[in-house]
Amino acid sequence: MNIKDLRIFARVAAVHNLSAVATELGVSAGTVSKRIQSLEEEIGVRLIDRTTRSSRLTEEGRMYLQRVERILLEVEHAQDEISANTCAPAGRLKISAPASLSRQIVLPALVGFIEAYPAIDVCVDITDRIANLHDEGYDAAIRAGTLADSTLKAKRLAGDRTILVAAPSYIERHGAPQRPADLAKHHGLIHGDLRSWMLYRGGEEAEGRINGRLGSDSGDFLHMAALQGTGLLRTSEIAVMEDLAAGRLIRVMPEYELASESAIWAVYANAKHAMPRLRVFLDHLAEFCRDRLNPAARQAARNQTPSEPSKSTEADVSDADERVSLRAGRKF
Q1: Taking the model in full, what pTM does it have?
Q2: Residue 104 or 281, more confident
């Protein structure tokens, strides 16, 4: 039995499309179909019902997939353990990240990473959508905010705050809100379908309804709109750190935060053993965040507001992986 055929079968089962798998592998759809057919002939059952538009697992295919996934995982672990003892980490990493954190964290960190690990190739997909790591073949995703309960594992890269900001030009025209009830009188930039914001101060929380005429599924688009003075922006503090320091954006209602337990995270599959190439990537990312997002650098962006200094320290970077078990919240 060819291990490559098992990998092809698993990918087709995940994405339900032979052409998509063929594109990933750089072969024709006919080649992928033949490899599936060869596997079916070898075991004597039909695994996938195939059409020109989609592919669907048969009942036997679903049973077979459970075994195949375990086999492939064990094979990968065996290869990684041998590689760890004989050579430097190598292979390909596929990462998902939002645009705002890609500029502030992912790209700057990768500059040093690809130089330090020449045998590792990295593909970064920029999207605000919460990707399904397993189905879409991602090794890890970078996320901000409060994580929902999940079977994924998470590495805390840096403490963060979800804050409210606006451009000076917006504040000159409309003033700044002072309390949650004031938000209804202002133009809020709507991310997705979120038309109310929860605000936290001390142990209290309040809901503020927003009056928004401009919305998008892209946090980066809304960030640019905020810079143009279009409205109030709910955002990760790290994502706008440089704009705050330069005065392009100003924090409003600084005594409030808009999420609890907010942080920057790297999430990845809950495998027994992390691949060496993923391990070194996560370690490099954590070290980069510790150096770049240190308390002194963060405070420089906060000096324009009377808010209390963050409690972020080097302890913000968690060296131990932990299963995510946090309150559900908005991710950016």
Answers
A1: 0.62
A2: 281
Among the CATH numbers 3.40.720.10, 1.20.1250.20, 1.10.10.10, 3.30.70.2570, which is that of 3-85?
A: 1.10.10.10
Tell me the pLDDT of the chain averaged across its residues.
Answer: 81
Query: Does 3.40.190.10 match the CATH number of domain 88-161+261-323?
Result: yes
Domains 88-161+261-323 and 162-251 share a fold: yes
Beta bridge partners of residue 49, listed in sequence order = 56
Strands, E assignment, the chain: 48-50, 55-57, 91-97, 120-126, 140-145, 153-159, 162-166, 187-191, 196-201, 204-209, 211-216, 233-236, 250-251, 263-268, 322-323
> Read out DSSP for 156-203?
EEEE--EEEEE-HHHHHHH----SGGGGGGSEEEEETT--EEEEEETT
In the structure encoding, which two tokens stand for residue 127, read together?
Answer: 């999207």
Closest among 79, 268, 54 to 156, alpha carbons compared: 268
Give domain 162-251's CATH architecture.
3-Layer(aba) Sandwich (3.40)
